[in-house]
Amino acid sequence: MCTSEKKMAEDKVIPVKVALRIRPQSTKETREGCQTALELVENEPQVLISNSNKCWTYDYAYDGETEQIQIYSESVKPILEKIFKGFNVTVLAYGQTGSGKTYTMGTAYNSTQDVELEGVIPRVVRDIFKHIEDNSSTEFLVKASFIELYNEQLFDLLSKKPRREETIVDIREDVKGIKIPGLTELPVSSLESTMNVIEKASSGRVTAATAMNLTSSRSHAIFTLCVESRPTSGGGCPTMSKFHMVDLAGSERQNKTKAKGVRLKEGININMGLLALGNVISALGDESKSGGANQHIPYRDSKLTRLLQDSLGGNSHTLMIACVSPADSNIDETISTLRYADRARKIKNKPIANKESGELGRLRGQVQQLQLQLLQCQGVSNANTNSEEFQIMKEHVERLEAENSQLTSALQSALEDSAHMSEKLLLSEQAQETLRIKLSELSAQTEDALKGFGDMPFDKKELVNKLRSKVESVMDQQKLSEKTMLEHDMSRFNPSRNVSLNESGGVGDEAREGTEDGEAGEGGADEEGDEDAT
What we know:
This protein has 534 residues and is α+β, with helices and mostly antiparallel strands. It has helices at 2-10, 27-31, 68-80, 101-105, 120-134, 191-202, 254-257, 262-285, 303-307, 331-344, 358-379, 382-385, 388-452, 458-491, 501-533, and strands at residues 14-15, 17-22, 38-40, 46-49, 55-57, 60-62, 89-95, 138-150, 153-156, 168-169, 172-174, 177-179, 186-188, 207-208, 216-217, 220-231, 239-247, 317-324, 348-349. Strands 2, 6, 7, 8, 9, 10, 13, 16, 17 and 18 form a ten-stranded mixed beta sheet that branches. It has a three-stranded antiparallel beta sheet with strand order 3-4-5, with helices on one face. A hairpin with a 2-residue loop joins strand 11 and strand 12 (177-179). Helix 3 packs across helix 5 and helix 14 packs antiparallel against helix 15 (501-533). The longest helix has 65 residues, at 388-452. The chain starts with a helix and ends with a helix. Mean pLDDT is 80; it is low at 4-10 and 495-534.
Protein backbone atom coordinates (compact mmCIF):
# COMPACT_ATOMS: atom_id res chain seq x y z
CA MET A 1 0.00 0.00 0.00
CA CYS A 2 2.73 2.45 0.98
CA THR A 3 4.75 1.61 -2.14
CA SER A 4 1.81 2.28 -4.48
CA GLU A 5 1.04 5.58 -2.75
CA LYS A 6 4.64 6.64 -3.11
CA LYS A 7 4.61 5.73 -6.82
CA MET A 8 1.49 7.82 -7.40
CA ALA A 9 3.08 10.76 -5.60
CA GLU A 10 6.21 10.51 -7.78
CA ASP A 11 4.07 11.01 -10.88
CA LYS A 12 2.63 14.31 -9.64
CA VAL A 13 4.15 17.63 -10.59
CA ILE A 14 2.88 20.53 -8.47
CA PRO A 15 3.48 24.21 -9.38
CA VAL A 16 4.68 26.66 -6.75
CA LYS A 17 1.71 28.66 -5.48
CA VAL A 18 1.99 32.43 -5.09
CA ALA A 19 -0.01 34.76 -2.84
CA LEU A 20 0.26 38.53 -3.28
CA ARG A 21 -0.16 40.76 -0.22
CA ILE A 22 -0.41 44.54 -0.58
CA ARG A 23 0.25 46.23 2.75
CA PRO A 24 -1.50 49.46 3.78
CA GLN A 25 0.30 52.73 3.19
CA SER A 26 2.63 53.67 6.05
CA THR A 27 2.34 56.89 8.01
CA LYS A 28 5.54 58.14 6.35
CA GLU A 29 4.15 57.47 2.86
CA THR A 30 0.88 59.20 3.69
CA ARG A 31 2.72 62.20 5.14
CA GLU A 32 4.79 62.48 1.96
CA GLY A 33 1.63 62.51 -0.17
CA CYS A 34 2.23 59.18 -1.93
CA GLN A 35 -0.56 57.86 -4.15
CA THR A 36 -1.78 54.23 -4.43
CA ALA A 37 -0.25 52.65 -7.53
CA LEU A 38 -1.85 49.16 -7.31
CA GLU A 39 -5.39 47.98 -7.90
CA LEU A 40 -6.88 44.53 -7.30
CA VAL A 41 -9.45 43.17 -9.77
CA GLU A 42 -12.67 42.43 -7.93
CA ASN A 43 -13.22 38.71 -7.17
CA GLU A 44 -10.05 37.81 -9.11
CA PRO A 45 -6.47 37.15 -7.85
CA GLN A 46 -5.18 39.78 -10.26
CA VAL A 47 -3.35 43.07 -9.70
CA LEU A 48 -3.12 46.10 -12.01
CA ILE A 49 -0.67 48.98 -12.13
CA SER A 50 -2.68 52.19 -12.07
CA ASN A 51 -2.73 54.19 -15.33
CA SER A 52 -1.02 51.40 -17.28
CA ASN A 53 -1.84 48.15 -19.05
CA LYS A 54 0.43 46.04 -16.83
CA CYS A 55 -1.25 43.28 -14.84
CA TRP A 56 -0.33 39.98 -13.18
CA THR A 57 -2.40 37.01 -12.02
CA TYR A 58 -1.54 34.85 -9.01
CA ASP A 59 -3.16 32.08 -6.98
CA TYR A 60 -4.23 34.49 -4.23
CA ALA A 61 -4.28 38.28 -3.93
CA TYR A 62 -4.97 40.37 -0.81
CA ASP A 63 -5.25 44.11 -0.27
CA GLY A 64 -4.23 46.21 2.73
CA GLU A 65 -7.50 45.56 4.57
CA THR A 66 -7.11 41.77 4.62
CA GLU A 67 -6.60 40.29 8.09
CA GLN A 68 -3.94 37.75 9.04
CA ILE A 69 -6.46 34.97 9.68
CA GLN A 70 -7.88 35.19 6.13
CA ILE A 71 -4.47 34.96 4.47
CA TYR A 72 -3.58 31.97 6.65
CA SER A 73 -6.88 30.13 6.19
CA GLU A 74 -7.03 30.52 2.40
CA SER A 75 -3.42 30.12 1.31
CA VAL A 76 -1.39 28.41 4.07
CA LYS A 77 -3.76 26.01 5.83
CA PRO A 78 -4.54 23.89 2.71
CA ILE A 79 -0.87 22.95 2.26
CA LEU A 80 -0.32 22.54 6.02
CA GLU A 81 -2.40 19.35 5.85
CA LYS A 82 0.22 17.87 3.49
CA ILE A 83 2.79 17.41 6.25
CA PHE A 84 0.58 14.85 7.99
CA LYS A 85 0.72 12.78 4.79
CA GLY A 86 4.53 12.79 4.74
CA PHE A 87 5.14 15.70 2.35
CA ASN A 88 7.61 18.55 2.86
CA VAL A 89 6.07 22.04 2.88
CA THR A 90 7.66 25.49 2.49
CA VAL A 91 6.14 28.94 3.01
CA LEU A 92 8.45 31.83 2.13
CA ALA A 93 7.87 35.58 2.20
CA TYR A 94 9.62 37.77 -0.37
CA GLY A 95 9.52 41.51 -1.04
CA GLN A 96 11.11 44.91 -0.71
CA THR A 97 12.41 46.00 2.68
CA GLY A 98 9.57 47.35 4.79
CA SER A 99 6.86 45.55 2.78
CA GLY A 100 5.54 43.47 5.73
CA LYS A 101 7.31 40.09 5.36
CA THR A 102 8.24 39.60 9.02
CA TYR A 103 4.76 40.73 10.10
CA THR A 104 3.15 38.26 7.68
CA MET A 105 5.36 35.33 8.73
CA GLY A 106 5.25 36.15 12.46
CA THR A 107 8.98 35.61 12.88
CA ALA A 108 9.29 38.38 15.48
CA TYR A 109 6.76 36.68 17.76
CA ASN A 110 6.04 38.15 21.19
CA SER A 111 3.93 36.42 23.85
CA THR A 112 2.14 39.71 24.61
CA GLN A 113 1.03 40.07 21.00
CA ASP A 114 -2.68 40.18 20.11
CA VAL A 115 -3.82 36.80 18.74
CA GLU A 116 -5.52 38.50 15.79
CA LEU A 117 -2.16 39.93 14.69
CA GLU A 118 -0.30 36.61 14.77
CA GLY A 119 1.48 35.64 11.57
CA VAL A 120 1.90 32.36 9.74
CA ILE A 121 4.35 30.65 12.13
CA PRO A 122 2.27 30.85 15.36
CA ARG A 123 -0.86 29.71 13.52
CA VAL A 124 0.96 26.78 11.89
CA VAL A 125 2.35 25.64 15.24
CA ARG A 126 -1.09 25.89 16.87
CA ASP A 127 -2.75 23.79 14.14
CA ILE A 128 0.01 21.16 14.16
CA PHE A 129 -0.37 20.48 17.88
CA LYS A 130 -4.16 20.57 17.59
CA HIS A 131 -3.93 17.83 14.96
CA ILE A 132 -1.59 15.83 17.21
CA GLU A 133 -4.02 16.18 20.11
CA ASP A 134 -6.95 14.99 17.96
CA ASN A 135 -5.07 11.90 16.68
CA SER A 136 -4.18 9.89 19.74
CA SER A 137 -3.86 6.68 17.69
CA THR A 138 -0.63 8.02 16.13
CA GLU A 139 2.63 8.68 17.92
CA PHE A 140 4.23 12.03 16.95
CA LEU A 141 7.69 13.52 17.47
CA VAL A 142 8.13 17.23 16.66
CA LYS A 143 11.56 18.91 16.53
CA ALA A 144 12.28 22.60 15.91
CA SER A 145 15.32 24.31 14.38
CA PHE A 146 15.95 27.98 13.58
CA ILE A 147 18.79 29.27 11.38
CA GLU A 148 19.85 32.74 10.25
CA LEU A 149 21.82 33.58 7.10
CA TYR A 150 23.70 36.81 7.82
CA ASN A 151 26.41 38.12 5.48
CA GLU A 152 26.63 34.65 3.86
CA GLN A 153 27.33 33.06 7.28
CA LEU A 154 24.89 30.52 8.68
CA PHE A 155 24.09 30.86 12.42
CA ASP A 156 22.23 28.38 14.64
CA LEU A 157 19.79 30.55 16.61
CA LEU A 158 18.88 27.68 18.99
CA SER A 159 22.47 26.91 19.95
CA LYS A 160 23.31 27.18 23.64
CA LYS A 161 26.90 28.25 22.99
CA PRO A 162 27.66 31.62 24.63
CA ARG A 163 29.57 33.30 21.79
CA ARG A 164 27.83 34.05 18.49
CA GLU A 165 30.93 33.01 16.51
CA GLU A 166 30.64 29.51 17.98
CA THR A 167 27.10 29.08 16.62
CA ILE A 168 28.23 29.16 12.97
CA VAL A 169 27.23 26.03 11.03
CA ASP A 170 27.82 25.03 7.43
CA ILE A 171 25.99 23.26 4.62
CA ARG A 172 26.86 19.77 3.45
CA GLU A 173 25.32 17.75 0.64
CA ASP A 174 24.96 13.99 0.23
CA VAL A 175 22.85 11.64 -1.88
CA LYS A 176 19.79 12.44 0.24
CA GLY A 177 20.09 16.22 -0.19
CA ILE A 178 21.19 19.23 1.84
CA LYS A 179 22.36 18.64 5.43
CA ILE A 180 23.54 21.02 8.18
CA PRO A 181 25.80 19.04 10.55
CA GLY A 182 25.67 20.18 14.17
CA LEU A 183 22.38 22.08 13.78
CA THR A 184 20.39 22.17 17.03
CA GLU A 185 17.02 20.41 16.80
CA LEU A 186 14.96 20.84 19.97
CA PRO A 187 12.09 18.41 20.68
CA VAL A 188 8.90 20.40 21.36
CA SER A 189 5.66 19.02 22.75
CA SER A 190 3.21 21.95 22.88
CA LEU A 191 2.30 25.32 21.42
CA GLU A 192 3.72 27.13 24.45
CA SER A 193 7.11 25.40 24.41
CA THR A 194 7.48 25.95 20.65
CA MET A 195 6.59 29.64 20.80
CA ASN A 196 8.99 30.13 23.72
CA VAL A 197 11.73 28.69 21.52
CA ILE A 198 10.78 31.01 18.63
CA GLU A 199 10.59 34.09 20.87
CA LYS A 200 13.99 33.41 22.41
CA ALA A 201 15.63 32.67 19.05
CA SER A 202 14.09 35.72 17.34
CA SER A 203 15.70 38.00 19.90
CA GLY A 204 19.11 36.92 18.61
CA ARG A 205 18.33 37.77 14.99
CA VAL A 206 20.11 40.81 13.52
CA THR A 207 17.84 43.82 12.96
CA ALA A 208 18.64 47.51 12.47
CA ALA A 209 17.00 50.81 11.54
CA THR A 210 17.16 52.21 8.00
CA ALA A 211 15.47 55.15 6.32
CA MET A 212 12.72 52.79 5.12
CA ASN A 213 12.22 50.54 8.16
CA LEU A 214 12.95 51.11 11.85
CA THR A 215 13.29 47.35 12.51
CA SER A 216 14.67 46.08 9.20
CA SER A 217 15.71 42.42 9.15
CA ARG A 218 19.36 42.25 8.12
CA SER A 219 19.36 38.50 7.54
CA HIS A 220 17.33 35.67 6.07
CA ALA A 221 15.68 33.40 8.66
CA ILE A 222 14.38 29.83 8.26
CA PHE A 223 12.30 28.20 11.02
CA THR A 224 11.77 24.46 10.50
CA LEU A 225 9.48 21.96 12.20
CA CYS A 226 10.34 18.30 11.61
CA VAL A 227 7.27 16.11 12.21
CA GLU A 228 7.66 12.34 12.54
CA SER A 229 4.58 10.15 12.89
CA ARG A 230 4.20 6.44 13.59
CA PRO A 231 0.83 4.66 13.96
CA THR A 232 0.65 2.90 17.32
CA SER A 233 -1.73 0.26 15.96
CA GLY A 234 0.57 -0.74 13.10
CA GLY A 235 -2.08 -0.06 10.46
CA GLY A 236 -0.20 2.59 8.48
CA CYS A 237 3.20 3.76 7.32
CA PRO A 238 5.58 5.89 9.42
CA THR A 239 6.18 9.33 7.88
CA MET A 240 8.71 12.11 8.32
CA SER A 241 8.07 15.60 6.92
CA LYS A 242 9.52 19.09 7.28
CA PHE A 243 7.73 22.43 7.35
CA HIS A 244 10.08 25.29 6.40
CA MET A 245 8.91 28.84 7.16
CA VAL A 246 11.22 31.34 5.46
CA ASP A 247 11.41 35.06 6.19
CA LEU A 248 13.70 36.56 3.55
CA ALA A 249 15.44 39.87 4.17
CA GLY A 250 14.05 42.61 1.92
CA SER A 251 15.69 43.79 -1.25
CA GLU A 252 16.83 47.38 -0.85
CA ARG A 253 18.30 50.33 -2.71
CA GLN A 254 20.98 52.39 -1.02
CA ASN A 255 19.57 55.72 -2.23
CA LYS A 256 16.36 54.95 -0.32
CA THR A 257 17.65 53.16 2.78
CA LYS A 258 20.55 55.65 3.21
CA ALA A 259 22.60 52.73 4.52
CA LYS A 260 26.29 53.27 5.30
CA GLY A 261 29.17 51.21 6.70
CA VAL A 262 28.01 47.92 8.20
CA ARG A 263 24.39 48.48 7.09
CA LEU A 264 25.55 49.02 3.50
CA LYS A 265 27.60 45.80 3.53
CA GLU A 266 24.58 43.93 4.90
CA GLY A 267 22.40 45.34 2.12
CA ILE A 268 24.91 44.29 -0.54
CA ASN A 269 25.01 40.70 0.79
CA ILE A 270 21.20 40.60 1.02
CA ASN A 271 20.84 41.75 -2.59
CA MET A 272 23.48 39.26 -3.80
CA GLY A 273 21.60 36.36 -2.20
CA LEU A 274 18.28 37.56 -3.63
CA LEU A 275 19.89 37.98 -7.06
CA ALA A 276 21.09 34.36 -6.95
CA LEU A 277 17.59 33.31 -5.86
CA GLY A 278 16.14 35.28 -8.80
CA ASN A 279 18.49 33.49 -11.21
CA VAL A 280 17.37 30.11 -9.85
CA ILE A 281 13.71 31.09 -10.17
CA SER A 282 14.27 32.33 -13.74
CA ALA A 283 16.06 29.12 -14.73
CA LEU A 284 13.36 26.92 -13.18
CA GLY A 285 10.55 29.01 -14.65
CA ASP A 286 11.97 29.05 -18.19
CA GLU A 287 9.35 26.93 -19.97
CA SER A 288 11.50 26.63 -23.11
CA LYS A 289 14.18 24.72 -21.15
CA SER A 290 12.06 23.18 -18.41
CA GLY A 291 12.92 19.54 -17.88
CA GLY A 292 15.85 19.59 -20.29
CA ALA A 293 18.58 17.06 -19.59
CA ASN A 294 21.30 19.72 -19.88
CA GLN A 295 19.45 22.45 -18.00
CA HIS A 296 21.70 24.06 -15.39
CA ILE A 297 20.11 25.44 -12.22
CA PRO A 298 22.60 27.70 -10.35
CA TYR A 299 21.76 26.50 -6.82
CA ARG A 300 25.42 26.70 -5.76
CA ASP A 301 25.75 30.44 -6.42
CA SER A 302 24.57 31.25 -2.88
CA LYS A 303 23.96 29.57 0.46
CA LEU A 304 20.39 30.87 0.32
CA THR A 305 19.64 29.02 -2.92
CA ARG A 306 21.26 25.85 -1.59
CA LEU A 307 19.05 26.00 1.51
CA LEU A 308 15.95 26.44 -0.70
CA GLN A 309 17.00 23.78 -3.23
CA ASP A 310 14.22 21.36 -2.26
CA SER A 311 11.64 24.13 -1.90
CA LEU A 312 12.12 25.45 -5.45
CA GLY A 313 12.04 22.75 -8.10
CA GLY A 314 12.43 19.89 -5.63
CA ASN A 315 10.60 17.73 -3.11
CA SER A 316 8.18 20.19 -1.50
CA HIS A 317 4.77 21.83 -1.62
CA THR A 318 5.73 25.51 -1.74
CA LEU A 319 3.86 28.78 -1.23
CA MET A 320 5.52 32.15 -1.90
CA ILE A 321 3.91 35.18 -0.26
CA ALA A 322 4.98 38.26 -2.24
CA CYS A 323 4.69 41.38 -0.07
CA VAL A 324 4.56 44.78 -1.79
CA SER A 325 4.04 48.45 -0.97
CA PRO A 326 1.10 50.23 -2.68
CA ALA A 327 2.86 53.62 -2.76
CA ASP A 328 3.84 55.10 -6.12
CA SER A 329 7.22 56.09 -4.64
CA ASN A 330 8.12 52.37 -4.49
CA ILE A 331 6.67 51.42 -7.88
CA ASP A 332 10.01 50.20 -9.34
CA GLU A 333 10.64 47.78 -6.46
CA THR A 334 6.97 46.73 -6.51
CA ILE A 335 7.05 45.84 -10.23
CA SER A 336 10.29 43.91 -9.67
CA THR A 337 8.63 41.87 -6.90
CA LEU A 338 5.53 41.23 -9.06
CA ARG A 339 7.68 39.91 -11.90
CA TYR A 340 9.71 37.83 -9.45
CA ALA A 341 6.52 36.23 -8.12
CA ASP A 342 5.15 35.66 -11.62
CA ARG A 343 8.27 33.69 -12.59
CA ALA A 344 8.09 31.67 -9.35
CA ARG A 345 4.54 30.60 -10.25
CA LYS A 346 5.92 28.79 -13.32
CA ILE A 347 8.21 26.56 -11.23
CA LYS A 348 7.17 22.90 -11.09
CA ASN A 349 7.95 20.94 -7.92
CA LYS A 350 7.81 17.17 -7.57
CA PRO A 351 6.83 16.44 -3.96
CA ILE A 352 7.19 12.85 -2.77
CA ALA A 353 5.67 11.47 0.41
CA ASN A 354 8.46 10.59 2.85
CA LYS A 355 7.07 7.22 3.85
CA GLU A 356 8.86 4.04 4.65
CA SER A 357 8.39 1.45 1.93
CA GLY A 358 6.44 -1.70 2.73
CA GLU A 359 9.57 -3.86 2.63
CA LEU A 360 11.51 -1.53 4.93
CA GLY A 361 8.60 -1.38 7.35
CA ARG A 362 8.32 -5.17 7.33
CA LEU A 363 12.04 -5.56 8.09
CA ARG A 364 11.85 -2.96 10.84
CA GLY A 365 8.91 -4.79 12.38
CA GLN A 366 10.78 -8.09 12.15
CA VAL A 367 13.79 -6.57 13.93
CA GLN A 368 11.52 -5.24 16.69
CA GLN A 369 9.93 -8.67 17.09
CA LEU A 370 13.35 -10.30 17.33
CA GLN A 371 14.45 -7.75 19.90
CA LEU A 372 11.31 -8.39 21.91
CA GLN A 373 11.86 -12.13 21.79
CA LEU A 374 15.46 -11.67 22.91
CA LEU A 375 14.29 -9.61 25.88
CA GLN A 376 11.74 -12.29 26.77
CA CYS A 377 14.40 -14.95 26.54
CA GLN A 378 16.68 -12.96 28.84
CA GLY A 379 13.93 -12.83 31.45
CA VAL A 380 13.44 -16.60 31.73
CA SER A 381 15.58 -19.22 33.39
CA ASN A 382 18.91 -20.42 32.05
CA ALA A 383 17.31 -23.64 30.88
CA ASN A 384 14.87 -21.76 28.67
CA THR A 385 17.62 -19.39 27.54
CA ASN A 386 19.59 -22.32 26.18
CA SER A 387 16.56 -23.71 24.38
CA GLU A 388 16.88 -24.87 20.80
CA GLU A 389 14.66 -22.05 19.44
CA PHE A 390 16.81 -19.38 21.09
CA GLN A 391 20.02 -20.93 19.78
CA ILE A 392 18.62 -21.06 16.23
CA MET A 393 17.59 -17.44 16.47
CA LYS A 394 20.97 -16.43 17.85
CA GLU A 395 22.81 -18.28 15.09
CA HIS A 396 20.57 -16.64 12.49
CA VAL A 397 21.37 -13.17 13.84
CA GLU A 398 25.10 -13.94 13.94
CA ARG A 399 24.98 -15.26 10.38
CA LEU A 400 23.24 -12.11 9.18
CA GLU A 401 25.77 -9.92 10.96
CA ALA A 402 28.68 -11.85 9.42
CA GLU A 403 27.12 -11.62 5.96
CA ASN A 404 26.59 -7.89 6.39
CA SER A 405 30.22 -7.47 7.47
CA GLN A 406 31.45 -9.43 4.43
CA LEU A 407 29.31 -7.38 2.03
CA THR A 408 30.51 -4.15 3.60
CA SER A 409 34.16 -5.24 3.27
CA ALA A 410 33.60 -6.33 -0.33
CA LEU A 411 31.98 -3.01 -1.19
CA GLN A 412 34.84 -1.06 0.41
CA SER A 413 37.39 -3.18 -1.45
CA ALA A 414 35.56 -2.66 -4.75
CA LEU A 415 35.48 1.10 -4.21
CA GLU A 416 39.22 1.15 -3.46
CA ASP A 417 39.96 -0.98 -6.55
CA SER A 418 37.83 1.31 -8.69
CA ALA A 419 39.66 4.40 -7.42
CA HIS A 420 43.04 2.71 -8.00
CA MET A 421 42.11 1.69 -11.56
CA SER A 422 40.86 5.20 -12.34
CA GLU A 423 44.15 6.66 -11.15
CA LYS A 424 46.10 4.05 -13.12
CA LEU A 425 44.11 4.84 -16.27
CA LEU A 426 44.80 8.55 -15.87
CA LEU A 427 48.53 7.94 -15.49
CA SER A 428 48.48 5.64 -18.54
CA GLU A 429 46.78 8.29 -20.66
CA GLN A 430 49.33 10.87 -19.54
CA ALA A 431 52.19 8.50 -20.46
CA GLN A 432 50.61 7.84 -23.88
CA GLU A 433 50.34 11.56 -24.57
CA THR A 434 53.95 12.18 -23.52
CA LEU A 435 55.16 9.32 -25.73
CA ARG A 436 53.19 10.66 -28.69
CA ILE A 437 54.76 14.10 -28.32
CA LYS A 438 58.27 12.63 -28.02
CA LEU A 439 57.75 10.48 -31.11
CA SER A 440 56.58 13.49 -33.12
CA GLU A 441 59.66 15.43 -32.01
CA LEU A 442 61.93 12.49 -32.87
CA SER A 443 60.37 12.13 -36.32
CA ALA A 444 60.86 15.82 -37.04
CA GLN A 445 64.47 15.68 -35.88
CA THR A 446 65.13 12.65 -38.13
CA GLU A 447 63.72 14.43 -41.17
CA ASP A 448 65.85 17.49 -40.40
CA ALA A 449 68.93 15.28 -40.06
CA LEU A 450 68.29 13.70 -43.47
CA LYS A 451 67.90 17.09 -45.15
CA GLY A 452 71.09 18.38 -43.55
CA PHE A 453 73.21 15.49 -44.89
CA GLY A 454 72.72 15.31 -48.65
CA ASP A 455 75.90 13.39 -49.56
CA MET A 456 76.84 10.84 -46.98
CA PRO A 457 78.40 7.37 -47.10
CA PHE A 458 76.03 4.61 -48.13
CA ASP A 459 76.39 2.69 -44.87
CA LYS A 460 75.49 5.74 -42.76
CA LYS A 461 72.57 6.61 -45.04
CA GLU A 462 71.29 3.06 -44.68
CA LEU A 463 71.63 3.34 -40.91
CA VAL A 464 69.64 6.62 -40.88
CA ASN A 465 66.94 5.06 -43.09
CA LYS A 466 66.65 2.13 -40.70
CA LEU A 467 66.34 4.58 -37.83
CA ARG A 468 63.56 6.48 -39.64
CA SER A 469 61.76 3.21 -40.41
CA LYS A 470 61.98 2.23 -36.76
CA VAL A 471 60.53 5.61 -35.67
CA GLU A 472 57.68 5.25 -38.15
CA SER A 473 57.01 1.73 -36.90
CA VAL A 474 56.84 2.93 -33.30
CA MET A 475 54.48 5.76 -34.32
CA ASP A 476 52.23 3.27 -36.09
CA GLN A 477 52.16 1.13 -32.97
CA GLN A 478 51.30 4.23 -30.91
CA LYS A 479 48.40 5.13 -33.24
CA LEU A 480 47.14 1.55 -33.08
CA SER A 481 47.27 1.62 -29.29
CA GLU A 482 45.33 4.93 -29.20
CA LYS A 483 42.73 3.51 -31.59
CA THR A 484 42.30 0.42 -29.41
CA MET A 485 41.82 2.55 -26.28
CA LEU A 486 39.24 4.67 -28.12
CA GLU A 487 37.31 1.59 -29.25
CA HIS A 488 37.43 0.24 -25.71
CA ASP A 489 36.00 3.52 -24.39
CA MET A 490 33.22 3.46 -26.99
CA SER A 491 32.34 -0.13 -26.09
CA ARG A 492 31.09 1.10 -22.69
CA PHE A 493 28.22 2.85 -24.46
CA ASN A 494 27.50 -0.02 -26.91
CA PRO A 495 26.34 -3.13 -25.03
CA SER A 496 26.28 -5.23 -28.22
CA ARG A 497 30.02 -4.73 -28.76
CA ASN A 498 32.19 -7.38 -27.10
CA VAL A 499 35.87 -6.81 -26.86
CA SER A 500 37.64 -9.91 -25.52
CA LEU A 501 40.20 -9.72 -22.77
CA ASN A 502 42.66 -11.76 -24.89
CA GLU A 503 42.59 -9.19 -27.71
CA SER A 504 43.00 -6.35 -25.22
CA GLY A 505 45.95 -8.14 -23.67
CA GLY A 506 47.58 -8.65 -27.10
CA VAL A 507 47.26 -5.03 -28.00
CA GLY A 508 48.64 -4.08 -24.62
CA ASP A 509 51.74 -6.22 -25.28
CA GLU A 510 52.25 -4.61 -28.68
CA ALA A 511 51.86 -1.15 -27.17
CA ARG A 512 54.42 -1.99 -24.51
CA GLU A 513 56.79 -3.35 -27.15
CA GLY A 514 56.27 -0.18 -29.21
CA THR A 515 57.06 1.90 -26.17
CA GLU A 516 60.33 0.05 -25.59
CA ASP A 517 61.25 0.42 -29.28
CA GLY A 518 60.44 4.12 -29.09
CA GLU A 519 62.80 4.56 -26.18
CA ALA A 520 65.51 2.65 -28.00
CA GLY A 521 64.92 4.64 -31.19
CA GLU A 522 65.16 7.91 -29.33
CA GLY A 523 68.42 6.86 -27.75
CA GLY A 524 69.74 5.67 -31.13
CA ALA A 525 68.90 8.97 -32.74
CA ASP A 526 70.82 10.84 -30.08
CA GLU A 527 73.90 8.62 -30.55
CA GLU A 528 73.78 8.98 -34.34
CA GLY A 529 73.47 12.72 -34.05
CA ASP A 530 76.60 12.74 -31.86
CA GLU A 531 78.55 10.69 -34.46
CA ASP A 532 77.63 13.01 -37.32
CA ALA A 533 78.53 16.05 -35.28
CA THR A 534 81.95 14.50 -34.60
